[in-house]
Design a protein that fits this description.
By secondary structure, the chain is mainly α. It has one domain. It is 67% helix and 0% strand. The chain is built from 4 helices and no strands.
């Protein structure tokens, strides 16, 4: 059985991982890595939106 709290990647936790944060889980990290590979996106592009 899948635990949706820990095994389903949540957008906020994926975003946190991409920004280099520490509040993310294995599912979010794995999804973020697939996203980076598939879309060639990098966290520096997201950082300006965080500081605004």
């Amino acid at each position: 059985m899948v635990n949706p709290e820990t095994e389903v990647p949540r957008p906020a936790r994926v975003y946190d991982y991409l920004l280099g944060g520490a509040r993310n889980l294995v599912a979010a990290r794995a999804f973020a890595e697939r996203l980076v590979t598939a879309r060639s996106c990098r966290s520096p592009m997201m950082r300006p939106s965080r500081s605004a």
